[in-house]
Design brief:
The complex is a heterodimer.
Chain A: H1 7-20, H2 30-36, E1 40-44, E2 50-57, E3 60-66, H3 71-87, H4 89-94, E4 96-100, H5 113-129, H6 132-145, H7 150-158, H8 162-175
Parallel strand pairs in A: 1-3
Antiparallel strand pairs in A: 2-3, 2-4
Helix pairs in contact in A: 1-5, 2-3, 3-5, 6-7, 7-8
Chain B: H1 3-20, H2 25-31, H3 36-43, H4 51-60, E1 83-84, H5 90-102, H6 105-112
Classes of the chains: A alpha+beta, B mainly alpha.
């Protein structure tokens, strides 16, 4: 298995999908995108530790989501599983791929192929749900109104958790 | 599937749908004139629910049909899958297998053509 990862490709693919589905504003309809890509999105109660899964069964992609999680978290899960479908289709055709609670920021990258896929999937999901330019614009607009509540307001606009927006901003800042 | 599993899964589906709708046990129980404790027991499969109650629950949870809460008695033999990504417990593995098993396969087939 390949142990190197390609974040720029993951981000480019997410941007391409937004274009393909003509999505121009937040919140991004991730479930609609998943279905548009031919996947069945299935909700089921799962152990709290499990976020979701991706599997291509008899040619049909299945995205499983933990029905007990918060809707915002489910949106991130769906975006993450779409990433596996778009970027790692061969891998999830051979076996069911199960995702536990996503670690958004990894300090140490241990060199396994699975980690490389998760890093790519997280980069894809972040760009799909919170496209870089949109986040910057939204943050600028909200900060003008009220600096204190800007981040929660942006999170609400994108239908993601405040933690997800914060992670996104940290990720974008560290790149600059 | 045996009866015990049936009611446990049914309860799990109710709890999941309720959570998705952001409703509390007390709110749903009140809507259908049931005690919160009774609903809690139904959700863990300890109490066997009557047919009219399952219809009331489905309506309170804004479902078109109570059928979407019902597990299949005659499950296709649970296939076992090779799983990757994370170390899973036996219970977690069976949850994933049930999820995959619950995907309407007829739909999968017709959409392919």
């Amino acid at each position: 298995m390949n142990t190197s990862y390609d974040k720029p490709r993951a981000i480019a693919e997410a941007t391409r999908i937004l274009g393909e589905f003509a999505i121009t504003a937040a919140p991004v309809p991730v479930e609609k995108i998943a279905k548009g890509l031919g996947a069945i999105v299935q909700y089921a109660p799962l152990d709290d530790e499990l976020s979701g899964m991706a599997y291509v069964k008899d040619g049909k992609p299945i995205i499983g989501v933990n029905a007990l999680h918060h809707p915002n978290r489910q949106r991130f899960t769906i975006a993450h599983e779409i990433a596996h479908l778009v970027l790692h289709r061969d891998y999830i055709t051979e076996q069911v791929h199960v995702d536990k609670a996503f670690t958004m920021n990894r300090d140490s990258v241990s060199a396994t192929g699975t980690d490389a896929m998760e890093i790519e999937a997280n980069a894809f999901a972040a760009q799909l749900l919170m496209p870089q330019e949109w986040v910057k614009e939204a943050l600028a607009a909200e900060s003008e109104l009220d600096d204190e509540s800007a981040i929660p307001a942006v999170a609400k606009r994108f239908k993601v958790s405040t933690a997800a927006i914060q992670n996104r901003l940290i990720g974008l800042a560290s790149k600059e | 599937m045996n009866e015990k599993q049936f009611y446990e899964e049914l309860g799990g589906m109710i709890a999941a749908r309720r959570g998705q709708q952001g409703l509390k046990q007390a709110q749903v129980a009140q809507l259908i004139g049931m005690s919160r404790a009774a609903l809690a027991n139904i959700e863990v499969g300890r109490q066997r629910v009557l047919v009219h109650q399952i219809c009331q629950i489905a309506e309170a949870l804004k479902l078109d049909s109570a059928a979407s809460l019902l597990p299949k008695m005659q499950n296709a033999p649970v296939e076992s899958f090779q799983m990757s990504g994370s170390q899973l417990t036996q219970e977690q593995k069976s949850q994933i297998e049930r999820l995959i098993g619950s995907v309407p396969t007829t739909q999968a087939k017709t959409e392919k053509t």
